[in-house]
Write a structure and sequence with these properties.
Layout: E1 4-5, E2 20-27, H1 43-48, E3 58-63, E4 75-82, E5 86-94, E6 97-98, E7 111-128, E8 130-138, E9 169-172, E10 178-180, E11 183-185, E12 189-194, H2 196-206, H3 216-222, E13 226-230, E14 238-245, E15 252-259, E16 262-269, E17 276-282, E18 301-305, E19 309-314, E20 325-335, E21 349-354, E22 363-373, E23 378-382, H4 384-391, E24 400-404, E25 413-417, E26 428-435
Parallel strand pairs: 1-22
Antiparallel strand pairs: 2-26, 3-19, 4-5, 4-14, 5-13, 5-17, 6-16, 7-12, 7-14, 7-15, 8-9, 8-13, 10-11, 15-16, 18-25, 19-24, 20-23, 20-26, 21-22, 21-24, 22-23
Amino acid sequence: MNHIQPFTWRKGIVLSATFLFSIFLIISCKKKENSIGQNTIDQNELLLSSGIDTFELTTYSYIDDSIISDNAPFAVLGSYNDPVFGTYNAEFYTQFRLETFNLDLGDLSTITVDSFILSLEYIGQYGDAGIQNIEVFEITDDLYLDSTYLSTDVANTDPLDWVYPGANAILMDEEGETIVGEDTLTQKQLRIPLSTSKAKTIFIDAVSGAGYFDDNEAFLDYFKGLHVRTTNSFSPGQGGVSYFNLNDPDSELTIYYTQNGQQKTYSFQINSSCADFNHVDVDTLSGPNNILNDQTAGMEQFYAQAFGMRAVVEIPELSTIPQNAIIHKAILELPVAYQTGTPYSPGAEVSIATNLEIGGTKLYGVNTIGYYDDYRKSFEIDIRSYVQALINKEVVNTRLIFSPLLHNTSAERIIFNGPLTTNKDKPKLYILYTEF
């Protein structure tokens, strides 16, 4: 099981006032001009230096099927069919909590259930979700807040779909208006209509005297939560995934009812005391997964995908940098294959991790983030602290591992150009250091 944990590198210290300046331009293939670092690397120094060299990069990908997905920042829901990566399908499980205890409904014969709505506040979207077929099932397994759930885990459910009959096809559009009654909400929501007969059953059970609404512990024994999923059949290039903030007060399960001519509501809350987890299925039989059986193919293109693949860059010759070096700059540029406007973008940021030991399975953050430049179609990553840590022998030179920043709570995927790509731009690393 892989874990990404914070890791802080110590800063190098200048020990001498007399320096021998050397500049190394490290790239994956032939030398070429590049504008990265022009604001801090003097081009005159570059031309005058005799310390320009070329080191090789090794690039590939691997499947990570041990992604912890419980209580993630966002719930993910939806599916898409990527022309390169294949199908991606995201769903989630969540508990609910009572709004009030000992619900007093009075005479049930005076109540008419108007609607039963699961509302989820949008926080983002990947691709073009469009109309998707949504299903909602009651969980029959207990979920536990202190348990660890992986993205491959499932919970048992009752087979009856709670969505209102005939209402499964729902437009998932975070930019669309959300209208409740006569009000247009500021915060956009996905509102899933559920069966009113289920709401009536809940009200009957609430006043049955069985104590289901006495407290949250009793309520969770009665109602263990909901599993929300989509079932779609998209052609390549269709579909998308939406992100939802389950801890927002507007994400809730609400019964709208009329009693003696007065309109009322009762809501079941989703909050930080609720256990929840994302379940994601990614295509592991086609597309970029083929390079797992032929690692040399990763030298042409290599890949990263949330809940699935991690991208790897190995730079063995970093170990040849002099041990008395102070690293002033180390910028890694990773170009991507992406055409602006196509639905599945590389996202805005990547996280970087490494193995602290050769053959180790735990991942540790490199205390930096890579940012995407849409003009250059590449990610630019400052790895100065990491390279200095190698020089200081604080870590061993294993590999750098790249993932979408929200690897366990998004649907992003990235196609990186490898050193042997037929595309124009290749991955490059620029290093400026001082020997003392």
